[in-house]
Amino acid sequence: MRFIAILAEICALISIAYYIAAAFAARRFAGIMSAPPPAMPASPPRCALLKPMRGLGANLAANIKSYLELAYPNAEFYFGVSNRGDRAAEIPESLREQYGSRSINLVVGEETGCENRKVAKLIRMAEQAAGADAYIISDADVAVETDHLRRVVAELFSAGRVGVVSCLYRARPGATFASRLEALTVNTDFAPLVMVSAAIEPMRYALGATIAIKREALDDIGGFRALKDLLADDFYIGKFAADRGWKVKLSSSLVTTHAAEENFRDYWNHQLRWARTYRTTRPLSLTTIILHGPFWASLAVLATGGSVFALKLLLAVLAARLLTAAFVAVRVLGVREQRRDLWLVPFKDLCMTGIWFASLLSNRVMWAGRRLEILRDGTMREVHG
Question: What is the CATH number of domain 36-260?
């Protein structure tokens, strides 16, 4: 028990140091967001915005409108669905008259032979947008500010070897308890970790909410077909581009998603998919267990029988964790409604510890109603039965 107590105390102290580092990284990112973007090219590049869709989400119309209202003069919009029966197709079709000056294109169908259905839509959309100078890929649940595309394009074309620009995202909670947990996970776990990573190492991955890639860089990695069987297509867009000498940048433009998990099972399965995906694409992510401060501090209390030092350490961990979570989620990311949920952070952290351990038990995940197995090379195959 003595060894466990010492290990737990060391990890708890490391987690406090990480929370402090995350606060400084968040402050740095806040400065980047508030700074003016690089100058736009004299002739605005032709940009194709690709948005694969599935299902009629509650915020889909508002999300699409936020793109159609972007302050950018040379953009074409492509919305992809698997078939006409997908009700998501109704939204861009219904907005044609209201946004008559915009080039709105609905692309129906998927490329065959793709395990990744999102990529299957992207291949078809990119074929319709051949000749674009840059492709901006965003998930259906993403909304943006009016200056988003100007910022991203300016950053993408600010230097010759920048090939990919990716956007950090925040999550706004819905009405359900599970959606509140999901938003907390994005805003107090995922976002700070990306901020710290971007501050200490060159980016070699992209974030799926929004990715901008130059046509030359996309061609260089083999187009979207190079991603057709990969689960973590966003990660590999950045990795493949970096492997070929292109720079990958984190944008100053913050985008927004809405957490839509209906119940705890949805939350657990979503986070478990992420955890298993991270483990297979970036095994170093396993070391993040060291940063699970509430788990280690609680373990130290148990292992020492409630020693005074362990109890003080637990209080210090909780204080550092809650202060950092509040600073990042509320002050930097601007999700003010999460003030009411900060008390849930330690509970959410313990859930994430459970998910970390569960992620070691299998390579199978649930995604969009499909049961998939992640193979050693990052590809996936559907599991039936």
Answer: 3.90.550.10
